[in-house]
Records
---
Amino acid sequence: MNWMKSVLISLLLFWNGSLWATDHFPPPFIALYKLYVNGIPVGKGSRSLTKVSPDQWVFETVGETTGLAALIQAIRIEERSVFTRINGNIRPLEYTYRQTGRKTINNQVLFNWSKNIAQDVYQGKTKTVSLKENVLDRLLYQLVLMQELQQGKRQLQYQVVNKGNLSTYTPTLLGKETVKTGTGELETLKYERLSSNKERRTTLWCASQLHYLPVRVEHVEKDNEVFSLVLESVQGLP
């Protein structure tokens, strides 16, 4: 009977390990970036994934001007998502966005999955959004994107709580591109997402060597001002 017990334990360990391997969820990491505005270096940025408890994670990005650029105009943007994972599915719990400097923007979203609603507070105004399964926040979709690209998916679509509404984000694959970074040249998949009114554009270059981490992120505003982050270094990813 002991040999049978050992075999069963081995099979269970193998099965659980296989499930984890096929999940393709990124390990904890921290990535550092250079920040550019219209092609001119003006600051620094970071992106990190941290496990804060057995069932909670934090995904966070920060960007800020430094040096002379900060003296001319100090700008800081913090975006943070607290989430949990249930049977491999990522479920947001709290999202915060804070921008200071040229303009001040505050946004907080609290997800109540027991009632299937989210309270979205944007610039002091609160809206209630009805939730359904697999809804994400404005930052967390980029982490799920990394996971799904690692799983082999290429056609992507996400439901996102966005300023009091439920929006559909559909990143479009534009092709493959080699990107120069602080860690060398990296082969990437290039994805573009347009805002609903097509006035803003976000482009992600996701490197297969780094679990499809966006090694370059570019955001074009409606006045054609271009903000971009380019990877300088990364810890925790292959």
---
Amino acid sequence: MTGNNVVGIIFSNMHDDKLRELTDIRTMGSVPFGGRYRTIDFALSNMVNSGITKVGVITKSNFQSLMDHLGSGKAWDLSRKHEGLFILPPFGFNNSVYQSRVEALNGIQNFLTQCKEDYVVMSDCHIVFTMDLRPVVAEHIAKNADITMVYKNSVMPADLPEKICVEVGRNRKITDVLLTEGSADKVNWGMGLYVISKKFLLKVVAEAMARNRLSFVRDILQRSFEDCRVYGYKYDGFTGVLGSMKSYFESSMELLKPAVRSDLFPLARPVYTKVRDEMPTRFGLGSKVVNSIIADGCLIEGEVENCILFRGVTVGKGAKLKNCIIMQDSTVGNNTNLNYVVADKDVVFRDGRSMMGFESYPVYISKGVEV
């Protein structure tokens, strides 16, 4: 399989309401993650590394930071005369802003119709993972499937925004699709990644809109698995679910484990992002760093333990940071103590401040706030 017969569609705003602290001023796709990335980087890199050279990003609101991050798509080798990266406007049925996945797909039907590709890979941004999509598409084609849904067999994350559970029968054909409130047992839960035949997608979206059926899960998936060829594809790697501030913090802290980093950032499938030219991080005399991820351009003069620091963060003398996520260009003053704190971009902690949250409820400081 080559990616030239596949077009990628990324929903950048889906499930924004589940992570209000971080998506109040940005899309889910532009939420910072892992020290230097945005969540959309993982979906885009999965597609590009699988040979997909045409990707459309559906926007809705608060997408200024997303467009600044994506630019022309050069970081993902998508700045091209032909194909490449497309930013799709946030208008759905009757030129109003879409309210559901079906309306969003209906709003880009002209884009899909003009695409010469026969298959569509659709991905959300609220789950961070790295995956080679070529075997998924190859299996989809080999089985002549209408829909192939990627799922994971494990205990369903409590903060999963869209709790879809599927039953998989012989030859991995999906025999039931359930919307559930979660389970303490292992189930096959959907990861928001689908491979769909383009003709089938256009047909079912048009039929759903004609009947005012706007839910992709209830009105397309649940109505299709009996009469259509709907299959599942199992994924076994790391998944970071961003469904609340608690799960965002937990997924970020998982990156401090070497095994998780190796799974999420394999050498064979790098995760690309916007390059910001920075000098290497500088460590002052008496500084101490333990089990932390430190991005470029930082100045560390205090103590940092079990933390993730984004680009350009300054940690003053005598400061002690533990179990914190400090985002880009933030400043921690001298003799400041922080524990279980998530600070957005451009936050300033003045000298001598002390702030403590808890593992299940980290303290969040909004962008640009001075404490």
